[in-house]
């Protein structure tokens, strides 16, 4: 079977809702990210055989198949096709896996896996309506925040544990920013400001250097009066885009690329759609089995911080070395622009492998209505 390699990737700085990226359309945001990717990799866009772009709320400025429109805005030739992918929170991790599948099956040699979400301009959930009565007759569908509460209850996770984990996420992200860790995966983005002038955005807006456990303890439960899940121990609503270039060995030889990583294994699972966010637990087990690896073979884990309870419950099952889990912070601090986060996790994990001379990274993300995706990459 043909191997699939990550040549390189890039992402925008992530902005808070109504923050630094609020004045740029998501299709334009995705387009400029694609432009920076092909420039960074010295790729002729005409050689790209497909663009897969993850986006969750496909309505308004994110509608009309944004996966096709963004490459056109970016100046790609009309012959380069594009598709929009919705695996909810794992949409751009899904596009990475789809790109790898296309390459491994000898369908394509060069594919871009990307993602975008402007949760400011296109509010989460605005693409939906009411649930089918047939669905509701089978499942007691609840908001994800209630699912996070159910997880905390099942794994006996108290408010102090969730807040402590979330505080650590901010501190790790702040330390990473101080050390310019994210510089390799982000680019300087020029965006319009409220003053009508253009401004250059360089760093993620989400991490809070001024937060502390005392402040976090004052936040009210967000989903149930006696609950433990708050805005402080949940992922931030954010804006951003990411893009990676994947290639076969044939494309590497043809275009002179130097790959950074190999896609080792991929998995996708379904779980109970009510508790909904436990998917990373079986997805991790499944992808390790597919890779023929043991848990201890993994050098870094990027487990998406949709909620602190999701990561801590995963940890209760696997008992990891927590220094290997989200070592540079996660979505609680950096933000979670739904369609773009998977690409960000892959890039952050890859950068960590290169800095530490590690071999394997495992990336996994929970998904609404009870799914999860996991991917293992190997540094080359």
UniProtKB/TrEMBL annotation:
It is found in: Cytoplasm. Keywords: Acyltransferase, Transferase. It holds the Pfam family Thiolase_N. Its main location: cytoplasm. It comes from the Bacteria. GO terms for molecular function: acetyl-CoA C-acetyltransferase activity. Gene3D superfamilies: 3.40.47.10. Belongs to the thiolase-like superfamily. Thiolase family. This is Acetyl-CoA acetyltransferase. It comes from Sulfobacillus thermosulfidooxidans.
């Amino acid at each position: 079977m043909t191997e699939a390699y990550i040549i390189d990737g890039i992402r925008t700085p992530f902005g808070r809702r109504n923050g630094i990226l609020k004045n740029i359309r998501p299709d334009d945001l995705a387009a400029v990210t694609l432009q920076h990717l092909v420039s960074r990799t010295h790729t002729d866009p005409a050689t790209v055989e497909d663009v897969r772009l993850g986006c969750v709320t496909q309505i308004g400025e994110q509608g009309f198949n944004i996966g096709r429109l963004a490459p056109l805005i970016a100046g790609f030739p009309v012959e380069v096709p594009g598709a929009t992918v919705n695996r909810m929170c794992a949409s751009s991790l899904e596009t990475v896996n789809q790109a790898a599948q296309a390459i491994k099956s000898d369908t394509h040699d060069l594919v871009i896996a990307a993602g975008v979400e402007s949760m400011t301009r296109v509010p989460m959930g605005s693409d939906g309506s009411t649930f089918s009565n047939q669905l509701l007759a089978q499942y007691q569908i609840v908001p994800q925040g209630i699912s996070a509460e159910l997880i905390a209850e099942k794994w006996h996770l108290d408010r102090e544990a969730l807040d402590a984990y979330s505080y650590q996420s901010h501190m790790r992200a702040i330390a990473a920013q101080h050390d310019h860790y994210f510089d390799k995966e982000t680019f300087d983005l020029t965006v319009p400001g409220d003053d009508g002038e253009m401004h250059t955005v360089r760093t993620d807006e989400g991490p809070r250097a001024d937060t502390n456990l005392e402040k976090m303890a004052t936040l009210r439960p967000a989903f149930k009066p006696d609950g433990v899940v708050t805005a402080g121990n949940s992922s931030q609503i954010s804006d951003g885009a990411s893009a990676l270039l994947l290639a076969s060995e044939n494309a590497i030889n043809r275009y002179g690329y130097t790959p950074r990583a190999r896609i080792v294994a991929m998995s996708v699972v379904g779980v109970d759609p009510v508790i909904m966010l436990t998917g990373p637990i079986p997805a991790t087990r499944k992808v390790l089995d597919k890779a023929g690896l043991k848990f201890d073979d993994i050098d870094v884990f990027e487990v998406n911080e949709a909620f602190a309870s999701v990561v801590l419950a995963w940890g209760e099952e696997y008992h990891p070395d927590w220094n290997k889990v989200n070592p540079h912070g996660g979505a609680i601090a950096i933000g979670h622009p739904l369609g773009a986060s998977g690409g960000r996790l892959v890039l952050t994990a890859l950068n960590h492998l290169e800095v530490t001379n590690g071999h394997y990274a495992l990336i996994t993300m929970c998904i609404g209505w009870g799914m999860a995706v996991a991917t293992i990459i190997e540094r080359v």
